[in-house]
Structure formats: structure tokens, C-alpha cells
Amino acid sequence: MLNSKAQSCYQCGKCTSICPVRRVSKTSPRSSIYNSNVYGIQTNDIWTCLTCGLCPQECPQQVDFLNFIKDERAGRKPLDIAHLGVFTEYAELSSRLDGNNKPEGPADSKYGFFPGCVDMLGLFLHDVKTDFGEITTSSLKLLNKLDIKPKILNMKCCGHDVLWQGKKDVFDNLKNYNKKYISESGIDTLVTSCAECYRTFSKDYDLGIKVVHISQLLDKLGLKINADVAYHDPCRLGRHMGVYDAPRRALTANGVTVKEMEHSKENALCCGVSSFMNCNEQSKALRIARMNEAEATGVKTMITTCSKCLAHFNCLKNEKDAVKKYDLDVVDLSVYLARHMEHI
Fold it and tell me: What is the pTM of this model?
């Protein structure tokens, strides 16, 4: 708790007033801190928190609510894990098994590309009608066009979800394996297309090499697309890492006009689900609010740079008996650019 400065909270309530979950349910970041500071107890609010990063931006006492939540969750059982916990079970199993998958690609390359868990997403989230594997193939096409020939790193899950679910022991096992794998690969630059992987490798691993989100490399493709899109800032790439301009440059430098939504960049709304927890009617309401903002810009395409955001928005679009139908394509940034590259 000391690392989060939670003891500095003077209960002004700014965090509660801007909390996106507060829009759809009775929750209070302020109460979570109060109950922990004064009574030494936890509430369910620590599990419904999206860890979106809005409240630390506004806190006058600079309380790091993200670290507070992470500390409070550590070693405790999550309130609710979506999809029957299959992704968590996979991470836990992977953390206990020996890995022997070597990097693929040029042996002398100093670049490594980590696809993340797109294969698992494609295997279990077939109902969202999204080809998650296309993110990897598109990313590699774009990197090749930039004359970057990376090694493909066949590592274990980065551990993002289990870390934020309070399973630090599982995370540490994954981290230790992956750090050794990366060190032995000989790369000096790790590229990923996943916002959560980028955040985790950058902030939770101490790798000692350069970690890059692919959006930071894509403004030199030389495409001339001539289209209007909206861009959704993922919490992990945006507020957690401060990367707002790179994805927009990747679009505008290639002929795309970005129509900003009502809430964008530092104030962007979350997709409503974090670390595969609490996928429910409340989170659905947050997705609807965000999709309505995209629709209001008048565009037909919303771009994002997070595979989870991609899954959640397309889940809303493709659900049975949907309350509202959206004439809006939700597409990953790399996929969008690679598709247009093929039309040259």
C-alpha cells in the first residue's frame, strides 16, 4: 500500500466522480481506499475496478490507484472471471509446463516479434466473428515492408491477466520463463501488436531491451488510403503507457483522417472489460456508450490496438438479439493497414 500512496488519500471523491464503472453501478474507489486504510478490509469494488487508469490522472494526492488495486488483489480469489476462466486456466497450466519452442525467423535478427495470445482468442472466442490470427500475419507483412525481419518469439503468455487477477505466483513463473527466453534469443528490440503485452513487458518485466508497440513503427509505410475512421484508445496503451499519438500518426501518415470521439486520448472510455473479469450487463453498457460515440462521428470503421478491445466490441456487434445494430467495422490497426497495402 505504501507504494501506491493510498495513505495520502483525503477522501475528496474525484476518483469516484470520474470512474466509468460508476456510470453503470454503485461503486466507489474512494470507499475501497477508506475501508483498507481505516478498517483493513476489502470490498468487492476492488474486483469490479477496470484498472483503466482514469482516476490516477485526476487525483490531487497522486495516489496510484492501479498499484493499490494490484496490491489489494494479490493472493485473493477474483470475484468473477469471464469465459469460465479458460484463459486463466491456460496461463496457469502454461506456467507449470516446460517450454521448448524456439524462435522462428532470421537467426541474426535483433528484432523479436511476440504475437501474444491471438491463437487462444481465436480458439475460444469464435462467436465474435474476428480472425485474431490476422493480427499476426498483418503485423509481419507491415514489418517486412519496413525491412524489419523479426524473429517470431514462441513464448508463453506475458501474464497480464493473471497479474491483475491477483495471481502473482503464476505471473512470476511466466515472467521468469519469458525473460530467460528473450535473453537467450539475442534480440535487442521486442515488438508486439498487443497493448497488454506492451504494457506488461515494459512495466512489469525489467527486460533491459527496447520494447515497442507496432503502432510506433507504422508511419513510414507510404500508403495513400483516403478514408475516415475513429480510433479507440485502449487503456493499457493509452493511460497506462502514454501512447496516444503513434497510432494516430500511423493512420494519418498513410492517408487516413481520424475523427475523434467525444472522449479520446487521456479521457477515452474503456471497452468495459479488463483482464477477462466482470463481463456482464454493466460492462456491456460501457461498450454501448463507446460504440455510440464512434457511431456519432459518422465513420464506418473504428480502429483499435488491443486484441481484447477488438473482441469485446465485436462481441457486442455480433450478439444474438442485440438491442441495437451497429453499421460499424471494428478492426485492429495492423489488419486495417495491411489490407490496404494489399490493394496497392
Answer: 0.94
